[in-house]
Amino acid sequence: MLRLGFTLLLALVLGASLGAAFPMDNEKKRCSLSKYQFLVPHELKAVQKMKEHFEEIMLLSDRKCNIRLFHRKWKIAELSVPDQVMLVEAELDLVTTMLELPADPRFAETRQQPLAFLTQAREDVRVCMSMESSSHQPSGKLRHWLQKLHTAKETETPGCLEASAILHLFQVLNDLRCAALRQQCT
Question: Running DSSP on this structure, what letter comes out for residue 156?
Answer without folding.
Answer: S
